[in-house]
Automatic annotation (TrEMBL):
Protein name, per record: tRNA glutamyl-Q(34) synthetase GluQRS
Gene3D superfamilies tied to this protein: HUPs
Swiss-Prot/TrEMBL keywords: Aminoacyl-tRNA synthetase, ATP-binding, Ligase, Metal-binding, Nucleotide-binding, Protein biosynthesis, Zinc
Enzyme class, UniProt record, top EC level: ligase
Record has Transferase as a keyword: no
A Pfam family matched in the record: tRNA-synt_1c
Species this chain originates from: Rhabdonatronobacter sediminivivens
A single cellular component GO annotation: cytosol
Domain Glutamyl/glutaminyl-tRNA synthetase class Ib catalytic: 2-103, 177-272
Amino acid sequence: MVTRFAPSPTGLLHLGHAYSALVAWERARGQGRFLLRIEDIDQARCRSVFEAAIFEDLRWLGLDWPEPVMRQSTRMGAYRAALERLAGMGVVYPCRCRRRDIQAAVSAPQEGAAAIGPDGLVYPGTCRGRGMDRAGPGDVLRLDMGRALVLAGPAHFVETGARFAGEHALDPEWMRSQVGDVVLARRDLGTSYHLAVVVDDAAQGVSEVVRGADLFEATFIHVLLQRLLALPVPRYHHHRLIRDEKGKRLAKRDDARAIALYRAEGASPADIRALVNLPAGP
Ligand code: GLU
């Protein structure tokens, strides 16, 4: 059993992160390993002070993990290799549409209502079919969802989180209409969250991905990529989201609930567990 916590160092850890890390750590405790991975592909938004704060907060909570910690910023070669493999299968194409072009295309009357899925606005397919030999330096690379589904064949994953517990099969119709041709590499990053997370979970031998319920739908994209890249499909555990007293889920920059702030105010790790409704620690 290998679980992981994969924060992006773009801000301080808040109660929602603490909950996610504690759940992942406890699921591995006694029967496997808990890994930490720093998701810092977006170098423009990541800061080393936040990375240092992540380590400090997690240690304070009582967690430990093997070193060295994987950093996505050092993994660009692995993402490039995965992209090349997908391109070799004919499921990747270069796209030069800008956000406003996509919005204009999907709001054209003949297109009907624009679908917004787990990856945002569903791309209308304007550039689909362009060869990789026509890729320009400013293009993004997209997955040709129709072709990818045919090549991948039927696929499913097992979910152990309470809300979605059970086996989930990929529904090609839903994938086409609600997900569409997702971006696999952003022009400025050389990869995307979806591609990086799939490549790295496999490289780290993660057998159960523990994360928030907000990423449940994205899992279908991840399983499709795992199938195309012949990577093992891990088990998934999507946990409840931590909300504020008004019922709103905590935002990335919810500094009012930052662990560092609770610590500065004299809270103990047991207080943090109580705040996220976890039973008292070991
Ligand atoms: N880096 C992602 C985040 O901070 C985590 C994604 C994942 O666990 O798959 O939201």
